[in-house]
Amino acid sequence: MDLLIQTIKEEGIVLSDSVLKVDSFLNHQINPRLMYEIGKEFSNRFKEDRITKILTIESSGIAPSVMTGLQLDVPVIFARKKKSLTLVNDLLTAKVYSFTKQESNDISVSNKYLNEKDRVLIIDDFLANGQAAIGLAEIVKQANAEIAGIGIVIEKGFQNGGQLLREQGLRVESLARIHSLDNGEVSFIKDGTKEAVR
Amino acid sequence: MDLLIQTIKEEGIVLSDSVLKVDSFLNHQINPRLMYEIGKEFSNRFKEDRITKILTIESSGIAPSVMTGLQLDVPVIFARKKKSLTLVNDLLTAKVYSFTKQESNDISVSNKYLNEKDRVLIIDDFLANGQAAIGLAEIVKQANAEIAGIGIVIEKGFQNGGQLLREQGLRVESLARIHSLDNGEVSFIKDGTKEAVR
After folding, report:
1. pLDDT digits over B77-116, tens only?
2. Are the C-beta atoms of B190 and B196 separated by less than 8 Å?
């Protein structure tokens, strides 16, 4: 997605060979117009898939998800990383290990909002090792719902999450795929190839 | 805001005399169309106020904020409740006590995204004791930015947050104001009055 790649080039900050900071438009400050365009792109890619629900995880997944939900006209559910006092019963839960934070968290979704009739689009901001997406997929399975696909804003193509998910037969649509962050520079994987471009 | 009040009446669950659960459209599952309408309403109420930034707090403030940001065409910043590994330096922080969770949290915003030229609209999902809004206002002041107003989706009019903020001279716009949750029923404060209506 050109606008997204352009924004990453202009505003992304490479903190190390594996960490890209996109705090100016996605993870802390949010660019609502860009989120709208991201929602439009996900919506185009999944519009034939009879999606009934979008499932994401707090907090950075919410903005792209809600813009996609607006355009597909379906509800968005965000999994919680921490148990809420008013959300205690009948939870679907999965364990997610964060390599960045080096800790394991239970994520949870109320079973009221997912059932066997649902076709779920999972959306997240980043795909690196795939742990969050795998946890969300696990929750969809617990609800006996179907996973229609996974929409990722930024995939780190040099980490193995995308491969793990695709090997499970899941359809993963990433709007920007990063080839490498070596030497402080972002290079992208060209759409439909494994070729690197700057 | 009629659509919001209607949705609260239909889907809100009164858990006690002080707790209203709106997990089906705002706090866990999100209704994107309703969020769009909420964004339109905030945008109408603040469109003359030369807003440059919206400030909210993760997670439930993000959806209404990003829809408002889309329509006012300004960036949204969400304060974090937990420190991120890639967000460590130059933080503006405030302490927020949550009566619901009975714990105190530091909330933080990078000082890169707020400065003395900003006119900030603070948005949050709920206003009860006002602690989150006061913390966000504190952060705006630390950045020497101006608070243009506070937009609240649901105000619990029977708790003192609204009064605290208005006594500080802050403009608070709440889209639904709850008069009471007594006897398991939601009654609202009629716009522009202190009168209760069902």
Report:
1. 999 997 665 556 789 999 999 887 788 889 999 999 999 9
2. yes
Residue A85 has its nearest CB partner, among B84, B100, B113, at: B100
Q: How far is CA B51 from the centre of its chain?
A: 16
d(CA B102, CA A33): 37
Structure tokens at B172: 């608070």
Set out the domains of chain B in order of their start, with CATH numbers.
2-79+116-197 (3.40.50.2020)
One-letter amino acid at B155 equals: E
- Quick one: chain A helix, strand, coil %, rounded to 5? 30, 35, 35
Instruction: Please report, as a single letter, which amino acid is at residue A13.
Output: I
> Which pLDDT score, from 0 to 100, does residue A75 have?
98
Q: What's chain B's Rg over C-alpha atoms?
A: 16
Closest residue to A32, CB basis, from B19, B29, B76: B76
B104 in contact with A, Cβ within 8 Å: no
Helix (H) or strand (E) holding A7: helix A2-11
Q: What is the number of other CB atoms lying within 10 angstroms of the CB of residue B189?
A: 20
Mean per-residue pLDDT for A15-35? Answer: 97
CB-based contact (8 Å) between B24 and chain A?
A: yes
Q: Using a CB-CB distance cutoff of 8 angstroms, which residues of chain A are in contact with residue B77? A: 28-30
Contacts of A36 in chain B (CB under 8 A): 70
**Does the beta-carbon distance from A70 to B36 stay under 8 Å?**
yes
Residue A87: per-residue pLDDT: 54
